[in-house]
Design goal:
mainly alpha; 218 residues; 8 helices
Length: 218
Amino acid sequence: MTTEQSNYRMYFLRRLLKKGSLIITGSVLQGFGMAVFLFPHSIPSGGAAGLAVLLNYWFQLPMSLGLWLMNIMFLLSTVHYLGKISALGTIMVITVTSVSVNVLDVYFESPFANIWIDLLAGALLLGVGISILLSQRVSNGGIGYVALAIYKFKRINPGRTLFWMNGFIFLIAAYVIDWKIIILAVVCQWISTRIVTWIYNPPFRRETPIYTLAWRKK
């Protein structure tokens, strides 16, 4: 192996390690926001999380397992449209997030006794976690893959697709459990997407705006 090949190999490994570390960090952050601040109030952070809330309500299925199953189901249903390589990072995100929810739910609880403060804290962590994941070009949930697959073949804006998919799931959860859930879920979505937008295009940076798919995909 030549010196140039050795240097390139080290560079590749450093990049891979950095990317993996950032993916894990983003996944743990969004898992922390869900487990400690959102899920205790049955606030879904996205479509897959809304289905996980319903499975927990109906069958007492652990939130972490329900979240993983729903995301994997959405991912596997569309992976043949979008490619296996791009799905690997999302599978890593789904798994790390679900494990984080399972562990953090046991060892941590919110220090606040107010649902609105918990909502704010959870949405902030969610937004930061999503921003980190998007910076590494990975989806933060399987339901986003469905929207991307629809966009690929029908050219329907993925943000619009996610809005209606998430909204329909939120409506079901609100009808089954409590109508205030849809208000909390929408507020959570709004705060987390504002965080993503702010991180990608901070108000103090004078550059051409970068528009990203910010609507929550879980």
